[in-house]
Each structure stands twice: as C-alpha cells, then as structure tokens.
C-alpha cells in the first residue's frame, strides 16, 4: 500500500503552497525528525502563535478558516474549540488526540504519525495554547506500534528542544504530552468512549450533555480532535485563512485539503493529499489508476466501512461532505474502497456486520441485539437458507438502528452500508432465499418499520 501523497507515476509535485499536510514527506518514506522538520519550516507556526497571537485569536483563525473534523463526523473545529469554558479559574483542562484509527479501509492517520510525528505535535501545541490546556494525550490504536515508537521519540525531541514541558518558548505556558496506546476497541473512536477508556473504565459512550468541553477526562474540560484535524492547524496559523480556503475546488463547501485514498483491486492503491471538491472519478481513475485488468468496478464506498455503497455512475460526485450527501451517503474518512465484480454483496455485508457486531460496546439494546440479528440473517441468506421476509427484516433493522435510534453513532454507521447494498443489489440477497418447500421455521418475525 502506497502511503504517500504522490499521484500516478509520481507526477504530482508537492509544495507548501498546495500540500500543507504532506509537502515535508521524505521520498524514502522514513520519518521526518526534529532537525529536518525545523529545516522545513517546522514549529514556525507555533512560534508565531506564541509570539504574535493570543488564545482567542488562534481560535478565531481556525474558525474563520472553516476547518472541520477529519475523523468522519465533520464538526467545525473552531466551533468545538469555542465550547471550552472561558473561566480563568478552571486551570486543569485536557486536549485529547483521537488516534484510534480502527475504521476498516482507513490508514490516513497512520501515515501522518509514522512519517510526520512532529506535525501532529506542533498542531497539538498550538491547539493547547488556544484552549489553555496544560496536558495532552495521543490516544493511539494499540496495533500502531511503529507510530507509537515514532511519536514517543518525537515527544522526547520536542521536550529536549524546549517545545514541550515548562515555559514553552519563554511564554510561561506549560504543556505536557503523552502517548497512550489503547487496548483495541473500535468504539473508542467515539470521543466519550475514548475518554472512559483513558480513565481506565469500560469503553462505553457517555450520555451527552454534558459534553466533554464541560465535563471530560476526570471531570475536567476536555477537547477531542482527530489526528488529521490537528495536523491542519500549523498551516492555517502560518499562512492564513484566505490561503487555506483557496485550496479547495470551486463548489466545495469544505475548506482546505483532505487525505483521500482508494483500496481494493485498483491498479494503484494508495493515499494522496487532494483539495476538497475533486470528483470520485478523478480519485479513482487519475490517482488509483482504475481497476486492475480483468476486474470491473461494481460498487464503492467513499469513506470507510461505515459509509453507504455507491455505484460507478456516482463517481462524478465531488469529494466533500455535501457533495457525497447528494448521492445518498457520507464522506466519512475520505478513504474509498472499490468493490469488484467478483464480490458477492451478501458475503461482503455479512463480513462487515460481523465486525460491527463484535465491536459494539453492548450498552444499548438496538445495537447489542440488532447487529447480531443482522449477522444471523445474512449468514442464512449467504448459505441459501434465507426465509421469506428476511430481507424485509434486514431493512427493518436498518430503520430501527438508524440515526437517533441508538445511544451513539456506531449502529447507524454499521447499517448504512447494509441498507445501500440491499437498495442497489437486492437480487443478490433474493438469490439466497430458500424455496418455500425447503423452508424451516423463520429466525424471527419480520420487523415492519412504523408498526
């Protein structure tokens, strides 16, 4: 898998003006350590933020730039920062970096942490200054052992250089940063489940409100941002709002650039930094190179396993939240997966729903019981033992596990690809329904939405 921002045949030239996230990457894929990072203008944005900007100015700049969360939800970062309390008497606040990248088909944060660890540290340092947080944690997926090693080394380098710890850059501001490796739960991608896990509790999402900005880690105000989100902050501070907004393509409502990728049986699977607003077709054909010889594109997901399937005719949609919403699904993480014509959609969905059912925290009934139910039905259909009404039952589960029906967004994300797969490929599901003469007692009575 290509973990670079190069285009086809390395024809895309990266620069600080067009590729704020990836222009510092080395061609050999090795990590950029402190000396090289500073030689490439690293920590210049942090020095500017500490010397020339107060906390409110940093927050306002990020808000004006239109930076949105890059973890999948797309919430405006400056708005989230603005929710942190202004009360100066609250002197214990936390900044958490959500690096628990467990979304299937997604590996963008891994590249940043392994190859540009100081970019994340600089982004967190500026963010901590803006939020007046004295301590930060990078909550890292436990399987990312190389990222953990590189981040810990970078933290030590930054400490030795006076860029972390006490009295940073002579400002009187203190900020400690720690790398915390998780125990491997997909649900920790939900910010309050992450907070519970960091505290040593079971990784269940919390009821909101109160939101983490009011009551977060150990009951203190806390801000949680994604790796890629925080890595955008230095460039915004260094080069300004107008420049950052100019990076996106015309028509895009999202600003800046995005790490996007393609996996599956494409000729050039990989990861690229591209402006918001490029089309899915550009990403698929110009960067991923289209399908390998002998395969045809059957369907694709625009941003991880928790996004709905699209058809080849949807490739002309622009890659930003609103553009993908126009064709009926979500942008998600922006790393797409190609499904080729050899794949049976029932088997693919059974595999996906098994993953989501296993990763449910089990807190709320629709998710705890509904996802395993979908797996049982899909297994029966996959084996040709489905019963009349099973497809309607699956569609009922899609409705009952949809947005607003469960405690967090885990189940809605899990059933979105299921609903879209039935919508576009229903004959493949119908083919697994056994003849009536071979019927056995149904697994359950069909659910009728609205009954």
From TrEMBL:
The keyword 4Fe-4S applies. It catalyses: a quinone + NADH + 5 H(+)(in) = a quinol + NAD(+) + 4 H(+)(out). Its EC number is 7.1.1.-. Residues 346-391 form the NADH-ubiquinone oxidoreductase 51kDa subunit iron-sulphur binding domain. Keywords: 4Fe-4S, Flavoprotein, FMN, Iron, Iron-sulfur, Metal-binding, NAD, Oxidoreductase, Quinone, Translocase. Its cofactor is [4Fe-4S] cluster; FMN. GO terms for molecular function: 4 iron, 4 sulfur cluster binding; FMN binding; metal ion binding; NAD binding; NADH dehydrogenase (ubiquinone) activity; oxidoreductase activity; quinone binding. SMART domains: NADH_4Fe-4S (SM00928). InterPro entries: NADH-UbQ_OxRdtase_51kDa_CS (IPR001949), NADH-UbQ_OxRdtase_suF (IPR011537), Nuo51_FMN-bd (IPR011538), Nuo51_FMN-bd_sf (IPR037225), Nuop51_4Fe4S-bd (IPR019575), Nuop51_4Fe4S-bd_sf (IPR037207). PROSITE patterns: COMPLEX1_51K_1, COMPLEX1_51K_2. NDH-1 shuttles electrons from NADH, via FMN and iron-sulfur (Fe-S) centers, to quinones in the respiratory chain. Composed of 13 different subunits. Subunits NuoCD, E, F, and G constitute the peripheral sector of the complex. Belongs to the complex I 51 kDa subunit family. PANTHER family: NADH-QUINONE OXIDOREDUCTASE SUBUNIT F. This is NADH-quinone oxidoreductase subunit F. The lineage of its organism: Bacteria, Pseudomonadati, Pseudomonadota, Gammaproteobacteria, Pseudomonadales. The gene is nuoF.
């Amino acid at each position: 898998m290509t973990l670079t921002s190069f285009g086809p045949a390395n024809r895309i030239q990266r620069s600080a003006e067009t590729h704020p996230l990836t222009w510092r990457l080395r061609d050999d894929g090795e990590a950029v350590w402190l000396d090289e990072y500073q030689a490439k203008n690293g920590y210049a944005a942090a020095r500017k933020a500490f010397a020339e900007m107060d906390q409110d100015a940093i927050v306002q700049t990020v808000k004006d730039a239109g930076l949105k969360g890059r973890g999948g939800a797309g919430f405006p970062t400056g708005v989230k920062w603005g929710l942190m309390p202004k009360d100066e008497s609250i002197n214990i606040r936390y900044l958490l970096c959500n690096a628990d990248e467990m979304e299937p088909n997604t590996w963008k944060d891994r590249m940043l942490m392994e190859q540009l660890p100081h970019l994340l540290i600089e982004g967190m340092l500026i963010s901590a200054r803006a939020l007046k947080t004295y301590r930060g944690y990078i909550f890292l997926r436990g399987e990312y052992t190389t990222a953990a090693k590189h981040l810990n080394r970078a933290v030590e380098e930054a400490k030795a250089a006076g860029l972390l710890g006490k009295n940073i850059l002579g400002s009187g501001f203190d900020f400690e940063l720690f790398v915390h490796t998780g125990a491997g739960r997909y649900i920790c991608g939900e910010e309050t489940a992450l907070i519970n896990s960091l505290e040593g509790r079971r990784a269940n999402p919390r009821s909101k409100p109160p939101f983490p900005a009011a009551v977060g880690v150990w009951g203190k105000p806390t801000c949680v941002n994604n790796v890629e989100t925080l890595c955008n902050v230095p460039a915004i501070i260094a080069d300004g709002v107008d420049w950052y907004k100019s990076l996106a393509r015309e028509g895009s409502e999202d600003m800046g650039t995005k790490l996007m990728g393609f996996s599956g049986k494409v000729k050039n699977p990989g990861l690229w930094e591209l402006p918001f607003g490029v089309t899915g077709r550009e990403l698929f054909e110009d960067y991923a190179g289209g399908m390998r010889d002998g395969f045809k594109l059957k369907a694709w997901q625009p941003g991880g396993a928790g996004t709905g399937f699209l058809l080849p005719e949807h490739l002309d949609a622009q890659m930003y939240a609103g553009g993908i919403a126009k064709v009926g699904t979500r942008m998600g993480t922006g790393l797409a997966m190609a499904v080729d014509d050899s794949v049976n959609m029932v088997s693919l969905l059974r595999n996906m729903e098994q993953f989501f059912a296993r990763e449910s925290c089990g807190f709320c009934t629709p998710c705890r019981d509904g996802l395993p139910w979908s797996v049982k039905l899909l297994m029966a259909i996959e084996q040709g033992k489905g019963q009349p009404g099973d497809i309607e039952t699956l569609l009922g589960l899609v409705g009952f596990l949809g947005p607003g029906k469960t405690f967090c967004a885990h189940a809605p994300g899990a059933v979105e690809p299921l609903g879209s797969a039935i919508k576009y490929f229903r004959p493949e599901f119908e083919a697994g329904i056994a003849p009536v003469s071979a019927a056995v007692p149904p697994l359950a009575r069909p659910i009728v939405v609205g009954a």
